[in-house]
Amino acid sequence: QVQLVESGGGLVQAGGSLRLSCAASGRTFSNYAMGWFRQAPGKDREFVAAIKWNGRNTRYADSVKGRFTISRDNAKNTVYLQMNSLKPEDTAVYYCAADGQSFRSVLVTTVSEYNYWGQGTLVTVSS
């Protein structure tokens, strides 16, 4: 069974930065792409960023492109999300997720393609 544990959320002023971490255990971390999603109150869960199993490719939602950076350290079984220039509309619970297919050749952005999820960490951006 895969376990994902996020950390690093909190309260920050608009324009500030936060770094989220997600520690994984339970299967070979380096064989799977990882993603970050977020869910604001009253809204559906949405894709934020994803990184390929080998770390060589990334993909971002248009709303965060140029401000957020996803990275991974396969030696530490950890994926990160560096969030800069935060805006109030970035306020949400952020979830990390593990791709359900190993060594996938493309990065996927739909919730249904990720079959393991963390418990989420709350990010609140004040104006």
Describe this structure in words.
With 127 residues, the chain is mainly beta. It is 0% helix and 53% strand. The chain contains no helices and eleven strands. It has strands at 3-7, 10-13, 18-25, 32-39, 46-51, 58-60, 68-73, 78-83, 92-102, 114-117, 121-126. The strands form two sheets. Strands 2, 4, 5, 6, 9, 10 and 11 form a seven-stranded mixed sheet that branches. A four-stranded antiparallel sheet has the order 1-3-8-7, with no helix packed on it. A hairpin with a 4-residue loop joins strand 7 and strand 8. It is globular. The termini are far apart.
How would you describe this structure in keywords?
mainly beta, 53% strand, 7-stranded mixed β-sheet, 127 residues
**Total beta strands:** 11
SSE topology string: EEEEEEEEEEE
Provide mean pLDDT, rounded. Answer: 96
Estimate what percentage of residues fall within beta strands: over 45%
Tell the overall outline.
Answer: globular
Amount of helix: under 10%
Largest sheet: 7 strands, mixed
Q: Low-confidence parts lasting 5 or more residues at pLDDT below 50? A: none
Structural class: mainly beta
Termini, distance in Å?
40 Å
Total number of helices: 0
Nearest-angstrom radius of gyration?
13 Å
